[in-house]
Amino acid sequence: MQRMRGAGVPEGILRGLLVLLLTGGAVVFLVQRIVDYLLFQPSVGIDFKPEELGIRAESFHLATEDSVRVHAFYLPAARSDRALLFLHGNAGNASHRLPNAALLAAMDINVLLLDYRGYGLSDGSPSEPGCYADARAALIHLMEQRGIPEDRIVLFGRSLGGAVAIDLAQHRALAGVIVESTFTSLRDMVSGYIGPFAGLMSRGRFDSVTKVGSLRAPLLAFHGDVDQVVPYALGARLYEAVPTPKAFETLKGAGHNDTLQSGGAPYLARIHAFIDRVAPR
Predict the structure, then answer these.
(1) pLDDT exceeds 50 at position 132
(2) Above pLDDT 70, what percent of the chain?
(3) Could you please report the per-residue DSSP string of 178-195?
(4) How far apart are CA 201 and CA 227, in angstroms?
(5) CA distances from 2 to 10, 20, 110 (A)
(6) Which of 59, 122, 159, 202 is catalytic?
(7) What are φ and ψ of residue 25, in 5° steps?
(8) Does the annotation count 66 as an active-site position?
(9) Rounded distance between C-alpha atoms, residue 4 and residue 19, angstroms
(10) Burial status of residue 224 (CB atoms within 10 A of its CB: 0-12, 13-18, 19 or more)
(11) Of 112, 2, 133, 123, nearest in space to 59 by CA
(12) Are 58 and 113 in contact (CB under 8 A)?
């Protein structure tokens, strides 16, 4: 006969509940680590230097609100009083995006290309709150150090960077927001890759579809119709939830990482026209 403890719950049941809780906690921890491993794939260091690419860019560090040094490139546009904050995707580092940033700077707009913490030459380790803090620090730098008003700043977020841009744009009077190949929420993304249990464990993370209701700036969205990483349907569903003036561009035949190549000159012209409309020269 089992001994009784406290209010009469058998010790065997208590031990079983404890084992169950510990096992469940270990499973949750493991699933979250797997999700983070798939989500954040940084490349440390710098693979391409601006001068080697023939690009004029300043390389510098800025401090975040939690005292992390993050790296960025600043590509100036002569006599321009508007800026674009480029928030890249989950893999690689900012140096890989220098040629793309140079094409944007050629649109007569200053470009700040950010490395999230743990990426490139930035300190720290990547995390969702960290990405948000890094983006806030970059926006503050543009306004306070470069003297560019908030309503003359456009955000450009690609893939994961789109989720970071949407978080940053909430309740702000920015000139505009461009998102490309981005998703509704991390829960929706991992449910398709790992399964509904992993999706449940990711509930509330990178929840852009909830946050877009707080956007005040006009939005331009791009998505490739053969994207095998972020399904086209997720990009379309996110766009439907946007309340502000908005436009959606389907890039025919484009996957996840070839939007620039597939879109070509019309794609760049569409971005240029949007920038000129929301932040006129």
Answers:
(1) yes
(2) 83
(3) EEES--S-HHHHHHHHT-
(4) 25
(5) 6, 20, 74
(6) 159
(7) -65, -40
(8) no
(9) 19
(10) buried
(11) 112
(12) no
Identified catalytic residue from 71, 88, 223, 256: 256
Selection from 256, 253, 218, 215 nearest residue 235 by Cα: 256
| Averaged confidence pLDDT in the chain | 89
For the cut 50, the answer to whether the pLDDT of residue 82 exceeds it is: yes
Residue 85, phi-psi category: left (phi > 0), alpha (psi -120 to 50), beta (remainder)? beta
Cα(161)–Cα(167) distance, integer angstroms:
10
Q: Which two tokens stand for residue 38?
A: 């798939």
In this structure, the strands spanning 219-224 and 176-180 are parallel
Task: At 184, list the tokens.
Answer: 């509704």
**CB-count burial class (<10 Å; 0-12, 13-18, 19+) for 250:** middle
Indicate the residue type of 252. K
Nearest to 160 by CA among 87, 234, 93: 87
Residue with tokens 């290309």: 113
In order of start, what are the domains of the chain with their CATH numbers? Answer: 8-278 (3.40.50.1820)
Measure the CA–CA gap between 128 and 116, rounded to whole angstroms: 10
Give tens-digit pLDDT for 150-203: 999 999 999 999 999 999 999 999 999 999 999 999 989 888 666 665 556 667
CA angle 168, 66, 140 (to 5 degrees): 40
159 is catalytic: yes
User: Any bridge partners for residue 91, and if so which?
Assistant: 41
Strand partners, 211: none
The pTM of the full predicted model, rounded to 2 decimals, is 0.87
Are the C-beta atoms of residues 220 and 155 closer than 8 Å to each other? no
**223 catalytically annotated:** no
How far is Cα 45 from Cα 27, in angstroms, rounded to an integer? Answer: 33
